[in-house]
Amino acid sequence: MREQVSRPSASETPSFLKILKIMKDLGAEYFRGGSNTFEAYQWLQNMEKNFDTTRCQEDYKKDVAVYYLKDDASEWWTSVRRHYGQRNPTWTEFRKEFEGKYFPSEARDKLENEFINMERGQKSVRELESIFTRLRKYVYRGQEDEAVMAHHFLRALRPDIENRLMSVTYQRVDELVERAVNVEMNIEM
């Protein structure tokens, strides 16, 4: 049975050690480095989600993140830290350095291009939705515009499904996905 994680109240500011304990209870994982941009991005997103959950103070975030670096990542941070001299880097600076190292702009550009050029294939609507959702977060412009994203999803559907749905303008991706799933089920009957 999983231990209950106690979340601090809105007025409570947990200590650094309390945050480390809660992060451990939440299943925070160590980041070892490497070249897998998805893994790096996911680690960073999980850290931020855990920071929100723990109501982590801004001045603790970088130190908590550094605590969860191991192997190559820890060595990388040691070398970056030297560049700051006597000044203690902030969470924002850590994040910028981390993204520069593990999620550089060319990797993000590649993923955005993969999203923009999603090829039509024989994937089911749900498979396509999974890929679409995974890549959507890497789009620089238009990511927040649901109508634009719905139009892009429509263009990525198999032609036999797209043709049955293109007469309507969809304002939300989830609405389009549900209709596309229904069309797909009717085609397969």
Please describe the structure with a list of short key phrases separated by commas or semicolons.
189 residues; mainly alpha; 2 domains; Retrotrans_gag_dom
Concise description?
The protein folds into two domains: 16-103, no CATH class; 106-188, no CATH class.
Strand portion: under 5%
Fraction of residues in H or I helices: 55-70%
Our count of helices gives 10
Radius of gyration, in Å, reads 21 Å
Main sheet overview: none
Distance between the termini: 43 Å
Global morphology = elongated
User: What would you call the structural class?
Assistant: mainly alpha
Average pLDDT over all residues:
83
Domain Retrotransposon gag: 64-159
InterPro entries: Retrotrans_gag_dom
Topology readout:
Elements: H1 16-25, H2 37-54, H3 58-67, H4 71-83, H5 91-102, H6 105-116, H7 125-136, H8 146-156, H9 159-165, H10 173-188
Task: Write up this protein.
The structure is a single chain. The mean pLDDT is 83. By secondary structure, this protein is mostly helical. The chain starts with 15 loop residues before the first helix and ends with a helix. The protein folds into two domains: 16-103, no CATH class; 106-188, no CATH class. It is built from ten helices and no strands. The relative contact order is 0.08. Residues 64-159 form the Retrotransposon gag domain. InterPro entries: Retrotrans_gag_dom (IPR005162). Pfam families: Retrotrans_gag.
